[in-house]
Amino acid sequence: MAKAETLKPRLPRGFIDRRADAIAAQGRMLETIRQTFELYGFEALETPFIEYTEALGKFLPDLDRPNEGVFSFQDDDESWLSLRYDLTAPLARHVAEHFDALPKPYRSFRNGYVFRNEKPGPGRFRQFMQFDADIVGAGSVAADAEICMLMADTLDRLGLQGQYVVKVNNRKVLDGVMAAIGLAGDDKAGQRLTVLRAIDKLDRLGVEGVRQLLGPGRKDESGDFTKGAGLGDEEVGQLVQFLGFGKGTEGPDASNAAYLGALTSLYPEGLAAEGVRELKEMAALVTAAGYGRDRIQMDVSVVRGLEYYTGPVYEAELTFPVTNEAGETVRFGSVAGGGRYDGLVGRFRAEPVPATGFSIGVSRLFSALQLVGSPLLAGVDKPGPVVVLVLDRDNIADYQRLVSTLRAEGIRAELYLGGSGMKAQMKYADRRGSPCAIIQGSNEREAGEVQIKDLIEGARAAESIASNAEWKAARPAQFSVPEAEMVARVKEVLAQHFP
User: Fold this and answer.
1) Exposure string (b/e) for 4-16, b if CB count within 10 Å is 16 or more?
2) What is the DSSP letter of 244?
3) Phi/psi of residue 349, each to 5°?
4) Comparing C-alpha atoms, which of 12, 291, 222 is closest to residue 127?
5) 3-state secondary structure 159-193
6) Degrees (nearest 5) of the Cα angle 76, 78, 83?
7) Looking at residues 403-413, what average pLDDT do you find?
8) pTM of the entire structure?
9) Which residue ranges does the record assign to the Aminoacyl-transfer RNA synthetases class-II family profile domain (predicted)?
């Protein structure tokens, strides 16, 4: 007979597996974020992975490809459903659906996975976790200032003091600049969005890469071509000059007030001037609360790539250097961002509903904490389970009883469920990180005893034992106790190694 065909184990592109250590470390990070958000009065909300595609509407990543950019499928009633692209559109749907029952302003936080049906690459995944905080129902920029202060405090509590800056801009400023170069009006909406997405790549692609995307387009390292916004050289030059405003002129005494004062002289009227006025209000609020420009700074280069932002936009950027794939020293970049989106909830209701919020890229922030060696990720050294070996399979119920006795006393324990002999079982216990193993052969069972093997102490002793004869003679860190004393003696072993 031909050998049966077997499936090749393959992880889909753009997805990752994570094991226990990474999950536990990330859990500690998420708990710190949650506690900080609750300190600001935000409450938890959970929304499903799937929404009606129409709820995402024109804010899909690619308008011309309904099943690209997002993962979509048809339900049995022929309605189109999509895996959520972010956590903001589901929030807008939830608020609109329960509008009268919610306190307003409504402060909520959510965390969970989002999905992007896009080309994967280094650091770009199709499934990744976000952690969001939003205020719905507050039209004042005081809400935006509150969000920026929350971003700063969250990074501080994660141990990144002095290694980040929260940068703030206002879409009205950039919209005013785009209007001045002929990109006003509904017929230019698609071109404006292309400009926004191009500028949003400034940190990753640099000025030259953004120039190409503002003009005819750009070919990346793989040969893929991204169509540009089609602007002329003069318009591209004006936008690039705007993005560089204030760069290289700041000293140790620089302030948000001075930066915005200089910006006012460039845009004394119109939509851009309105945006600058709102930035001044925010700057006054964060300054009064004790946040200097070293933590929260006004910066016109921040745009955010999504279309639905209507006012202030912000990003938390880590400032410490890292080495990229080309061996070049670069800044780590953004780990969180957001802004005001006053039109999103209003799509479901007749009246406008103001809203603002931000999202943390959990995986990216986790990578940053790993790079700086955050003690938060190290956590507390945790022992593996105590493993009860099975030497006599006809009496497996007796071994199960020993396991249950340990668990009843709050000791993490497991019964060996494989089919191997004692030597292999001991190797298994080592791989599980077990602090000790419980051994009971027929002689011990008849005597009402068990043997406890301290695997940690045994490993230390083994380093000084030269021969197999010495090993058998010493039987390091292995001792017999009555079954009634098993729990107490196991607790002694655990206390010795994990005080």
Assistant:
1) eeeeeeeeeebee
2) T
3) -135, 160
4) 12
5) CCCCCEEEEEEEHHHHHHHHHHCCCCCHHHHHHHH
6) 85
7) 97
8) 0.82
9) 28-383
- How many Cα atoms are found within 13 Å in the side-chain-facing hemisphere of 82? 26
Residue 352 has a pLDDT of 87
Domains along the chain with CATH numbers: 20-378 (3.30.930.10), 386-497 (3.40.50.800)
Q: Tell me the mean pLDDT in the region 301-324.
A: 84
pLDDT, one tens digit per residue, over 440-493 is: 999 999 999 999 999 998 888 766 665 565 555 555 689 999 999 999 999 999
CA–CA distance, 440 with 449 (Å, rounded to integer): 7
For residue 103, the one-letter residue type is P
Closest Cα partner for 335 from 371, 289, 291? 371
What tens digit of pLDDT does each residue of 434-454 get? Answer: 999 999 999 999 999 999 999
What average pLDDT does the structure give for the chain? 87
DSSP type of residue 121: B
Residue 298, beta-bridge partner list: 168
Q: Residues 91-116, buried b or exposed e (16+ Cβ, 10 A)? A: bbbbbbeebeeeeebbbbbbbbebbb
Q: Is the pLDDT of residue 62 over 50?
A: no
Spatial distance between the Cα atoms of 118 and 128, rounded to a whole number of angstroms: 12
CA neighbor of 489 nearest in space, from 443, 433, 435, 425: 435
Burial 236-268 (b: 16+ CB within 10 A, else e): bebbbebbeebeeeeeeeeebeebbeebeeebe
- Beta carbons within 8 Å of 25's beta carbon, 6+ residues apart: 366, 376, 377, 378, 379
pLDDT at 80 over 90: no
Q: Are 151 and 262 in contact (CB under 8 A)?
A: no
Residue type, 231: L
Q: CA–CA separation, 112 vs 195, rounded Å?
A: 30
Measured distance CA(401)–CA(405) in Å, rounded: 6
Distance CA 367, CA 219 (A): 28
Lowest pLDDT segment from 87-91, 325-329, 439-443, 445-449: 325-329
